[in-house]
Amino acid sequence: MADQEQTGRRIQVANARPEDAGRGLARLPLAVMAQLQLSEGDVIEIVGKRNTPARVVRPYKEDEGLDVLRLDGLQRANAGVGSGDFVQISKAEPRAAQRVVFAPAQNNLRLQGNPEALKRVFFQRPLAAGDVVATAGQQQVPPGDMPPQLRQMLAAPAYALQEIRLVVVSTTPKGIVHIDADTEVELRAEYEEPRESRRADVTYDDVGGMAETIDQLREMVELPLRYPELFERLGVDPPKGVLLHGPPGTGKTRLARAVANESEAEFFLINGPEIMGSAYGESEKKLREIFEEAAKAAPSILFIDEIDSIAPKRGNVTGETEKRLVAQLLTLMDGLEPRTNLVVIAATNRPEAIDEALRRPGRFDREIVVGVPDERGRREILGIHTRGMPLGDRVDLTELARMTYGFVGADLAALTREAAIEAVRRFMPRLNLEEGTIPADVLEELSVTREDFMSAIKR
Ligand code: ADP
């Protein structure tokens, strides 16, 4: 049996880097590629709780020697796995599709489809019904000896000014297919609920410059939520409360949401200032109710934004409401059973301003600093917010990252939005607004240029 060709294999899943997100790639160790007789550009089927196809590419340099398969957040959702889980992979031969039907996976989006443009975006991409895919990833085509279909796929044009997520509603034939020149592509206007609607929303791919923070949170929050039995077996109590501190706009809320989605947990949000200021006794009642609701829906993450406003140092406050709210919060935290499978994540800009009692063991006893991003972080965040954006040749995100010292994630997101608006302004005269659709040739030329970014920075 020794020389029998191996056709499938088990492998552990890990997160891809944000710049890979939305491209449908599977980064595999060279040794595994050799073992399964795969070349770069081949297609594999990934089997977790569900199946999804991906195109094989070489591993990141620093992964050499590691036995992991890197997938992005959408692919992990498509395969029904989280990072750390094992999947079975095997070589697949996609068939040319006669027909593929897409629908928007975001219910805030009505699409007036240009199926031809969509066809170009997903040209040669392996697809299967039920998958959620994104119109992203046309940047940074790696040079070198890459098979033409892979090169084409990575260089796919953008579809709109921002990334759009779509559900593959059906394919003919069924199974793993790819779109070629003869495929008929239909885009439905109505929203189609994805199988994992949460993970079609925000994942770790969507928070930039936070690789280490994500690792810490995965250990502290995601693993206990996903594998409660494991922690119970080992006799360790997972943390009940984690305190994130950092300036506003650094991505704390987005990060908490991503952790919830990746943990397949429900997400509840309490906004500190909002819960204050209700009538006598109302604030505590609201707090109790949300805790109850979150416990009932467990596994869940309860996120308390601006916790300093509801739990200031009791010595410093004169208001009765604050005093009672702090006391209520302490009671609720102490009342949480480890097996409730609920983690409370609180965010603050001023950790020194919150009541010390909250930071005692069994309450918010873990702390993670979410800092202002450095240049690399800014580069990654810019990559995230320009995903799916058609960028002009001279746009250099590294240069933009260098120029935006002091910007936090929210500032960088605003900057890319501004730049896109600049581009739309330039194109306005060429649009026939009465027609309601953008002619394909105009859409093709629409791109956000270096000048658009420069004007946006000046604002
Ligand atoms: P915070 O909770 O720290 O105030 P948010 O998570 O509300 O910050 O961030 C606001 C917006 O700014 C996000 O929706 C996102 O568009 C953008 N943003 C902030 N930080 C990041 C980040 N690290 N990566 C990507 N986007 C970010």
From TrEMBL:
Key words, A-Z: ATP-binding, Nucleotide-binding, Repeat
Domain spans labelled AAA+ ATPase: 238-374
Sequence ranges assigned to domain CDC48 N-terminal subdomain in this UniProt record: 10-94
Gene Ontology terms, MF aspect: ATP binding; ATP hydrolysis activity
GO CC annotations, alphabetized: cytoplasm
Top-rank taxon, per record: Bacteria
Signal peptide start-end: none
Keyword ATP-binding: yes
Domain called CDC48: residue spans: 110-194
Protein name as it appears in the record: ATPase AAA
Lineage: Bacteria, Pseudomonadati, Pseudomonadota, Alphaproteobacteria, Sphingomonadales
Shown part of the complete sequence: 1 to 459 of 762
